[in-house]
Amino acid sequence: MFVTLPFGNQTLQKLWWKKQRTVEKVRSTGLLGEYDLVFVIHPGNRGWILEAICKEIAAYSSGRFCFHYATENLPSAKAYFFSHYCLLPLSLRANPEIRDRKLIVFHTHPKNPAEMGVSDRELYEALNASTQVVCMCSEFANLLIAEGVNPDKVTYVVGGADPQIFQPHDRGAGAIGLSSAYQPRKDPDRVYDLIKSMPHRRFILIGRYWEKYEKFPEMMAMEHFSYVQASYAEYPSYYAQMDVFVSPAKLEGGPIPLLETMMCNIVPVASRTGFAPDVIRHGENGFLFDVDSSIDVICDLIEQAYQLETNIRATAQPFTWENFSLAIQDYAGLI
């Protein structure tokens, strides 16, 4: 189902996409039968978190499902899961017949819908026509309601982590961890200032594309800083070296690494965005700071985190991908 695209050869790329379009058209005819659940994914999200979340939902489903990387020619299904909210109005344009099916829309964080060719009005009309809009945090569920989406249509389900993969460890003189790809909303300047301000602590940053950051050479010159571009399977081995996890982003839907590290018994210190306020009880199982907090405030919270004795994993146990998947399947009417 998941084919590696041969990016190095243009002829092969064209043949691969032609094959994909043919498969999608065959699916849409119904000749392959009706699916229980179709995951609608933007082709640009291959290999990224939204596709990974769809795979996690599917892993705990006993029904018949498929992954569809386009908004046209949707296969017949009892329910559809739109991995990005703008995919719903685009899919309704191309497939009006799906309106009477279960339409589950996933919402991580706000983004200008015009970037995907959708007006605000079309987006909110589509969301109100859906079965359920599932946000990953209460912050953005409340925001959608404030912007006119029917409250009965909106809920939130915190993301998940695999407790079998992310095992706990005892804390003691471990590093400060960060985990994210380089993006402006991740507040790279704050990450840089934080590392520079705490030379007595070791930092590990797991991520991609940080070499694009203008201060990256200066970061790499700091002896107490390590940058790791690891495969996902290697994440647990790096988490095992951490005592504190910091999420300094200005805007988040999650972040998922927050839950993964909490499963590993790492103390979270996070900005008040995404689901951090939904899972962290300030001073009890972690610490929260405002998105515009000073570096001094964050550094002080990190030092407090090193003194915390709470069993962090115990507070994260409800947030598994199995529970997340079951909630989505329930909204889709499949269980």
What would you say this structure looks like, in words?
With 335 residues, this protein is an alpha/beta fold. The chain has 2 domains: 10-160 and 322-331, 3-Layer(aba) Sandwich (Rossmann fold); 175-316, Rossmann fold. It has 13 helices and 12 strands. The chain has helices at residues 10-29, 49-59, 87-94, 120-129, 138-146, 188-197, 216-220, 235-239, 256-263, 276-279, 295-307, 312-316, 321-331; strands at 35-40, 65-68, 77-82, 102-107, 132-135, 154-156, 175-179, 203-206, 225-228, 242-247, 267-271, 287-289. Helix 2 (49-59) packs across helix 13 (321-331) and helix 6 crosses helix 11 (295-307). The radius of gyration is 21 Å and the shape is elongated. It starts with 9 loop residues before the first helix and ends with a helix. Mean pLDDT is 91; it is low at 1-9.
